């Protein structure tokens, strides 16, 4: 089932999320719904706060590479980035919660992360390159951070009207969104 993606301006995107345990209700269905939602929006990652759940859960699927090799696909529960190393590199990032805005973000190319998978098996692994970048972006979501937080004050001011338009629902997407004003009406 495809779920609405929470838009910029909703307070859930600024919450530091809480850990869950293996008894979290309907977790496997939630994970399946998150993948359906991410694929329908042509994303490569999705964090639970983006579907209005302030829990430490995110998914990643970088898709096939240019040679047709399988991409990096994983579920991360209660993740903790232990270490980030290497020389930061820029990449033009976007976010499903902040449509039509893409900006260069500097991130370190190597991470070490601990997490539980969807079967509650604990992992600690080192990840590099694009998968590491996607993980860092989604990890920021469960820490209440957005990629736009890395922008300078002048750039944020230049984008203010776009941010305001998104939070008011004045944006078009090919996927269902939930805007902050819709939350207040309930």
Percentage of β-strand residues: 25-35%
Specify Rg, calculated over alpha carbons.
16 Å
**Can you name the CATH architecture?**
Alpha-Beta Complex
Distance between the termini: 22 Å
Shape: globular
What is the oligomeric state here? single chain
Sheet with most strands: 5 strands, antiparallel
SS elements, strand count: 9
Characterize the structure shown:
It is a single chain. With 186 residues, the chain is of the alpha+beta class. It has a single domain (5-185), classed as Peptide deformylase (Peptide Deformylase), CATH 3.90.45.10. The chain has four helices and nine strands; from the N terminus they run E-H-E-E-E-E-E-E-E-H-H-E-H. It has helices spanning 27-40, 129-142, 153-168, 180-185; strands at residues 5-6, 45-47, 57-61, 73-85, 89-95, 98-107, 110-116, 122-128, 177-178. The strands form three sheets. Strands 2-3-4-7-8 form a five-stranded antiparallel β-sheet, with helices on both faces. It has a two-stranded parallel sheet with strand order 1-9. The longest helix has 16 residues, at 153-168. The protein is globular, with a radius of gyration of 16 Å. The chain starts with a strand and ends with a helix.
List the helices and strands and how they pair.
Blueprint: E1 5-6, H1 27-40, E2 45-47, E3 57-61, E4 73-85, E5 89-95, E6 98-107, E7 110-116, E8 122-128, H2 129-142, H3 153-168, E9 177-178, H4 180-185
């Amino acid at each position: 089932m495809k779920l609405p993606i929470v838009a910029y301006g909703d307070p859930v995107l600024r919450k530091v999320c809480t850990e869950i345990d293996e008894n979290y209700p309907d977790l496997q269905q939630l994970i399946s719904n998150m993948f359906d939602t991410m694929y329908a929006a042509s994303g490569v990652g999705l964090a639970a706060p983006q579907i209005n759940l302030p829990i430490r859960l995110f998914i990643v699927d970088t898709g096939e590479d240019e040679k047709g090799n399988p991409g990096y696909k994983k579920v991360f529960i209660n993740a903790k980035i232990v270490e980030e190393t290497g020389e930061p590199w820029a990449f033009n990032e976007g976010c499903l919660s902040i449509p039509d805005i893409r900006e260069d973000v500097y991130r370190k190319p190597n991470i070490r992360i601990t997490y539980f998978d969807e079967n509650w098996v604990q992992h600690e692994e080192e990840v590099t390159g694009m998968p590491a970048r996607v993980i860092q972006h989604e990890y920021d979501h469960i820490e209440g951070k957005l990629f736009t937080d890395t922008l300078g004050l002048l750039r944020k001011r230049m984008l203010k009207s776009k941010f305001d338009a998104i939070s008011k629902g004045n944006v078009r997407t090919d996927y269902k969104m939930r805007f902050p004003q819709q939350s207040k009406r309930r």
